[in-house]
Design a protein that fits this description.
- Keywords: Signal.
- This is Phosphatidylinositol-specific phospholipase C X domain-containing protein.
- One of its GO terms (biological process) is lipid metabolic process.
- One of its GO terms (molecular function) is phosphoric diester hydrolase activity.
- The protein has about 400 residues and is of the alpha/beta class.
- The chain has three domains: about 40 residues, no CATH class; about 50 residues, no CATH class; about 280 residues, Alpha-Beta Barrel (TIM Barrel), CATH 3.20.20.190.
- The protein is built from eight helices and 16 strands.
- The strands form three sheets. Strands 7, 8, 9, 10, 11, 12, 13, 14, 15 and 16 form a ten-stranded mixed sheet that branches. Strands 5-4-3-6 form a four-stranded antiparallel sheet.
- Helix 2 links the parallel strand 7 and strand 8.
- Helix 7 runs parallel beside helix 8.
- The longest helix has 19 residues.
- The N terminus is likely disordered.
- It binds 2-acetamido-2-deoxy-beta-D-glucopyranose (4 copies).
Amino acid sequence: MSMGLFALVVFIAILGLGGGASACSDGTCKLLDNCSTDSDCEAGLYCGSCVVGFKGSRCIRLTTSNPFSLVVLHEENYVQHVLIDTSRRRTGSILLKRRTEEAEPIQDDTNQAILLNNSLPYNKYGFLTTHNSYAIDGEPSHTGVPRITFTNQEDTITQQLNNGARALMLDTYDFEGDVWLCHSRGGQCFDVTAFGPANDTMQEIEAFLAANPSEIVTLILEDYVNAPNGLTKVFNESGLSKYWFPLSKMPKNGEDWPLVSDMVAANERLLVFTSKASKEQTEGIAYQWNYMVENQYGDGGMKQGQCTNRGESAPLNDRTKSLVLVNYFGSIPNKWLSCQYNSDDLLNMLRTCYTAADSRWANFAAVDYYKRSEGGGAFQAVDTLNGKLLCGCDDIHACMPGSTSGACSP
Ligand SMILES: *[C@@H]1O[C@H](CO)[C@@H](O)[C@H](O)[C@H]1NC(C)=O
Ligand SMILES: *[C@@H]1O[C@H](CO)[C@@H](O)[C@H](O)[C@H]1NC(C)=O
Ligand SMILES: *[C@@H]1O[C@H](CO)[C@@H](O)[C@H](O)[C@H]1NC(C)=O
Ligand SMILES: *[C@@H]1O[C@H](CO)[C@@H](O)[C@H](O)[C@H]1NC(C)=O
């Protein structure tokens, strides 16, 4: 190669690098920085795209901040407010107080984490909720017949839970002499609408609860199971019954729920709601509409400035139900628009529903393709809900220790 050609090649290579590659890599890319692979991005982010929101690929959020893990770190020279995510990674920290040299000697161990207040009632938290959590891209056919139905998610149940989803919406049907998860119509599951036996999904949830002894998972069932004790059998066989939160402890008239720390201590960390009223009597499974209000789902729930209850639910402002669920997804799942739906649109609807629900922030924000966003997406929306619920701030990261309202860090 001649020197001239060599120089040209080097020049083009430099141009190529300058034009295409990102300024950051290897875990240094921050929120909305350009990226080419997930590993370019900081912890808690992944490299995603959103054609309707931004060009190319950028680091966007991958996890919620765990509201049960608000801690204050006492380190050698300062006191810090630290947030850790469900994988125990730090997602943010705020310096509260620098210890002065004249200060009393430190009695506590350095790096000691002190919990702020993780013992609020269950209904004082916001939970990321995946709609049709089981309708996952690439799920192989379990019937031998190719499926002809929509998907609403892209990750496995285990990934959803690991990324911070804490409520799963599942459609349960009688099928093949067992309980299956199907995306069907008319209350009947078919070979072409069946996703898989419910026990597989329940076992993934069991494994998550076993591995994460401080976490609480809520299941919201669109329930078409008529087989007597059909669901109970699945919960028994999958090992989930041991985490059962009993009906007797559920508030019947809009009172606060038990404290999450008590639920964790009692290992009553699985809440199940069914859409079949009779199952409260027959199987001790909570009838959803006795405890929760919910807005319209699908396109009807996406009209800006409107938040009305779905048919089965009491009006949003009925305070005899202490839980509030906000749906925000189209009638037909749309992978490309979901990143927009899950961003400002979702936050706006949460605000609209706050007003409709008599000044109550949602406990559940239900979305399709939960990871898609223009940056913060449903994860940021849940951080906002928890900020509002825990301390009246716009973001859980802004809550100051001891504050219940007003005192927000910038
Ligand atoms: C990021 O990527 C977009 C689209 O690929 C590009 O237009 C922009 O210049 C890049 N920004 C930086 C800072 O590299
Ligand atoms: C946390 O909040 C709950 C509910 O308001 C309250 O009962 C409890 O005493 C608080 N705990 C601490 C340590 O402040
Ligand atoms: C789960 O259900 C399927 C279908 O009914 C069955 O073949 C399988 O044995 C079940 N697995 C367990 C662990 O119960
Ligand atoms: C579920 O387990 C409980 C407790 O072991 C048992 O009493 C009940 O009969 C079981 N029900 C079914 C349907 O398997």
